[in-house]
């Protein structure tokens, strides 16, 4: 077989194509989207010799299985998981040679949530506003993977990088999110502001690519009434009327009408993408840079 | 306009600039867009909203905040390009409710809506969804008590003093007064969005049952 493609044998709970997202269109209501853990997406690309901009797969909790139609180099990192080629163990976090016709299996995450899969040549899909990312909120970009789908691949541009192993942070057992005060911190009582940065929260199972939802002490507002819709940044911590903070992730809406109590440092959001439901969360107040 | 900007830092590299009216927010967005086009402002996202403009992806937000605090914001200039015309059938399920709120006959709702010149104040909610302003204050309508789980694509709707068109089927709590076949969002088109901040819009009544 010569066609450069992979067939999806098992799509998994939610596997999407992701790249560096589609910045610059928030004023049209288009979320940034892109890999929730962009550092790991760039890393798996480097392991197979792709540019950082190539599209990768982002799995959710239970991996996926792909049958190759051509020889490829693949790499899996992010949430640790078993990787096999035709049932034989293969390394995680390192380049893997996969012959044509073989079954590449990305197992369930043994820790963390999202594994990233890069294949030499990168996954092709029709770009939307310059990006191949699946945007779950707006439905832009390719649909999430489905069993039986065929994923076309690009041509490898350079020989695979000679990187054998890479240091990777383990998924967090406790999620520490550094926060600066949000634009609407004054909508909350001093007690709520104190509670927010001193008490423990947990990652809610309702979390997704749009937001990391939390469970824990309810945050009370100092003022009632509605906030007019306003622009939202990545990492904004919005507090809806139920009082439970939601951290906006890559597929977050570009505007919203609930007050933002704080903003999470961008560098801490990759860990948020790997925090399984129930993980303790602490919001730690820091000064703006 | 000057001195009534409230500048709120957002994280390490964004600013939310708050003003006191929707018209001022439009003027501020127009001025910031002009500076960006002229190469005087480097910003990744410039997001106008009801009373604010968000500037995200700034290299030196502290310096820009100081600069904006004393900035002169000229009132929004009249746009010279022709208005986008959206054909609409006034056949929405909430027409009677809106007529009751306004204290007019149902046909009058269509006449008032189609007789108003709108402008896109800002976008959001979904790609291609514009919040259109232009209705006088007496035509304020509340959102529905219970939002619909699915509003059909092309629904022309009202909420508060805004009107908008649902680009695709989604849940929504706006009052539905009509239907259009206009394509609000098509990513294969350039530009993908029919409406962007500042665009002038007119609704043109089409007869019920006539495909436009």
From TrEMBL, chain A:
It comes from the Bacteria. Gene3D superfamilies: Cyclophilin-like. GO terms for molecular function: ATP binding; hydrolase activity; transferase activity. InterPro entries: CT_A_B (IPR003778), Cyclophilin-like_dom_sf (IPR029000), PxpC (IPR052708). Pfam families: CT_A_B. Keywords: ATP-binding, Hydrolase, Nucleotide-binding, Transferase. The keyword Transferase applies. Residues 27-289 form the Carboxyltransferase domain. This is Biotin-dependent carboxyltransferase family protein. It comes from Streptomyces roseirectus.
